[in-house]
């Protein structure tokens, strides 16, 4: 339930468990707090956190604090999340700060992201993922010089992500540089047509998520390079007749551009798309996603 975004259903199950006389433990609270995070249920999450501490007398661990930072920051309360971290009785680790930095990207707060990133760089100076997160924030703000500096520093490669889809018992793997696939031309042609239709309907491609400048690469090539888009397009071309569900798995978190593309495909191609990224499941149907923007 948690990873599928069924927050209300998870809360109902948690309450039923308590009514049946089963006392929740610390793992139960991690589950219900995670459900609140993935569904944007801020008030409910705060209530369960207090129930854990004051009614059930369970001392929160780092996992619970990560949930709370995610809950507050994803809803846009970045300063509140920062103060929450400062008031924690235990030292925050890199996971805590990374959760807050990810939300800075979602809410386009460059200054706050830089402040949070300093904590991450101090804790894990060699972790490329932290620099990449900050680069995404800069890309959101179209601060290409800062993006370039970070890319030069960590030498980020664009083919780290991969997605895969199973068709007729065969697993097809796509990377960002997916032009090695036998149907690469057909896939790229379909994606180009879909992007044109998106633009005609007023959807502007979010090239900033590609972390590139126009001088580095042609925009259309960059947009075509997201591995989950390649897998989804291949699914449309290859699904057996009568089958309407496309199932794709990605090793990294889905980016906002591909998230918008999946919503568009589900409506335009009349397909249901089940995308499992590194964070959760996304169910796309009729132009909507089960995550409702919380992922």
TrEMBL record:
InterPro entries assigned: DYW_dom, E_motif, PPR_At4g14850-like_plant, PPR_rpt, TPR-like_helical_dom_sf
One Pfam family from the record: PPR
Molecular function per GO: RNA binding; zinc ion binding
Alphabetically ordered keywords of this record: Repeat
Listed Gene3D superfamilies: Tetratricopeptide repeat domain
Transmembrane segments: none
Record bears the keyword Repeat: yes
PANTHER family in UniProt: DYW DOMAIN-CONTAINING PROTEIN (PTHR47926:SF362), PENTATRICOPEPTIDE REPEAT-CONTAINING PROTEIN (PTHR47926)
Family affiliation: Belongs to the PPR family. PCMP-H subfamily.
Protein name, UniProt field: DYW domain-containing protein
The species this protein was found in: Dipteronia sinensis
Highest classification ranks of the organism: Eukaryota, Viridiplantae, Streptophyta, Embryophyta, Tracheophyta
């Amino acid at each position: 339930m948690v990873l599928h975004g069924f927050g209300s259903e998870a809360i109902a199950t948690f309450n039923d468990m308590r009514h049946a006389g089963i006392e929740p433990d610390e793992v139960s609270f991690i589950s219900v707090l995670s459900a609140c995070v993935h569904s944007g249920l801020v008030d409910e999450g705060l209530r369960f956190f207090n129930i854990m501490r004051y009614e059930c007398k369970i001392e929160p661990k780092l996992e619970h604090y990560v949930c709370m930072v995610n809950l507050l920051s994803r809803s846009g309360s970045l300063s509140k999340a920062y103060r929450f971290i400062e008031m924690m009785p235990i030292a925050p680790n890199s996971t805590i700060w990374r959760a807050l930095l990810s939300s800075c990207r979602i809410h386009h707060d460059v200054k706050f992201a830089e402040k949070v990133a300093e904590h991450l760089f101090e804790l894990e100076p060699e972790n490329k993922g932290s620099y990449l997160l900050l680069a995404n924030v800069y890309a959101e703000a179209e601060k290409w010089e800062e993006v370039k500096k970070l890319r030069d520093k960590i030498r980020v490669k664009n083919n780290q992500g991969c997605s895969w889809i199973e068709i007729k018992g065969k697993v097809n793997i796509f990377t960002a540089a997916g032009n090695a696939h036998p149907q690469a031309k057909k896939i790229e042609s379909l994606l180009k047509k879909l992007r044109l239709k998106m633009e005609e309907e007023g959807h502007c491609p979010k090239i900033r998520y590609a972390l590139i400048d126009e001088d580095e690469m042609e925009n259309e090539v960059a947009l075509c390079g997201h591995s989950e888009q390649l897998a989804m397009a291949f699914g449309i071309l290859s699904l057996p007749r009568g089958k309407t569900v496309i199932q794709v798995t990605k090793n990294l978190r889905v980016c906002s551009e591909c998230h918008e593309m999946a919503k568009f495909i589900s409506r335009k191609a009349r397909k249901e798309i089940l995308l499992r990224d590194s964070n959760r499941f996304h169910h796309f149907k009729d132009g909507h996603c089960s995550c409702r923007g919380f992922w």
